[in-house]
Amino acid sequence: MTETPHPLYDRHAETLDRALTAITERGYWSAYPESPSPRVYGETAAADGRAAFEAYLGGDFPLDQPGDGTTVATETSPFGVELGVRYPHAAADQLVAAATAALPAWRDAGPQVRVGVCLEILDRLHRNVFELANAVQFTSGQAFVMAFQAGGAHALDRALEALAYAYAEMTRHPGTAGWEKAAGKGDPLRMTKTFHVVPRGVALVIGCNTFPTWNSYPGLFASLVTGNPVVVKPHPRAVLPLAVTVRYARQVLAEAGFDPNLVQLAPEAQGEGIASTLALHPAVKIVDFTGSTEYGDWLEANARQAAVYTEKAGLNTVVVDSTDDFAGMCRNLGFTLTLYSGQMCTTSQNILIPRDGIDTDQGRKSFDEVAAGIAAAVGKLTADPARGVELTGAIVNDGVLERLDEVTKVGEPVLESRTVEHPSFPGAVVRTPTIVKLDAGDTATYSREWFGPISFAIATDSTTHSLEVLRSTVGEKGALTAAVYSTDDAVLDAAEAAAVEVGVHLSCNLTGGVFVNQSAAFSDFHGSGANPAANSALTDGAYVANRFRIVQSRRHV
Predict the structure, then answer these.
(1) DSSP tag of 188
(2) Structure confidence by residue, pLDDT tens digits, 412-459
(3) The Cα angle at residue 19 between residues 13 and 25, in degrees rounded to 5
(4) Contact at 8 Å (CB) between 430 and 400?
């Protein structure tokens, strides 16, 4: 069955073609500029976006979708800014019924039409990227530039990457095929076969507080483009970024002639638990989740009717063996630990250092000197509050503060966390990172995740011992990132072998402008699905191919 060309597909065909090339080449490419400079986006873009964000505050969010007539408002900004946005509430059954009704026409439109509409949604979001960035900043606690990049441009890149993988999977076979088989002396057997891309059903995306767009967009767009209506359940403390997303998605869908209920928002009242209700609904066939290991495990065990994609917690680890750029290593790790106050699922927690020290370009450095060097780099980045807060952002929730208090009772501090007054937002909750010394025997402490600006400098017997610790902790608890520093190729090879064994992505000798906790769309995979930290990867064929099925029809010629 040949698809009829669609204007939106034609409009964005060049972008799609470039994205399809990028996922095969795995080099650097980005469709959405990450600099918020006026030279890139225009002189008024920043002010217009901020004004659009502020227009939402203290009011009813403009979203016309099925609901029960009530509203919910659950957000508290880490920057102390009053948000007070009220969102329309709906029961799970209302949302699922509306999504189910919207599915057939979207399914029958075919992959080319769907990808064209989805690309137009990304384009609409990009045109409103400053609005989106402000929403991310003031709900997640990210500093503005990071919110613009990770929550805006990079999130859109990740969405486009998912579209490219999904389109490639949906179109890897022909829509129709002629089949002919010899049948002895008689006429051959002839059939025409049609292959339909059939969505699984209603998809559920459960958003997180820290990266509400970056972590949600891949699943949202992978499900939508493969024909599945999507219910977006935001984190109660970070509703606005996904509400803005849903608003623009619904606009585009309606303009393209489709039911806007293909994308709906599911904000919840405090403690309502609508995520679990939706996840277990018989009509919900796909669940995407980013968040705690406990809830991710629950979804995997209980949402048996659905394909469940989870990104959970892990023990991101650094193995320090030796370095030919001690200052660069310390600066790089210092930036990694400082960025967004360590509130990234990819930030390093356990830094494994031989207790008898390491060889460097500055001579032999003791364990204490290595730990102190990293601590000094963090201290330098956070010494000036005005500059430091543009890296640290604000603390996302009270759980981080509780862990910062708890960690004072373990180990010996190399660097203590400080309270910082934000020069622009007096109500902001800002804490600098802490680094605590531990011994490799303190497994009860470092074998659990301490999400937030908390890291451990851990003394091991040797680099071989460090790799054993990496294998055991990551193998048991999982990790999204690992790093190694060594001037010995044999050590780098051993670290890579260990990383492959436990299924964690490895970075070697990062001393410049690439950091272990940052992941580039179209090139880096995020998560592997090969250890307990995540059961899937952003983004590969496995992430998209199970969101649809092929159903064939055969007719004799």
Answers:
(1) P
(2) 999 999 999 999 999 999 999 999 999 999 999 999 999 999 999 999
(3) 140
(4) no
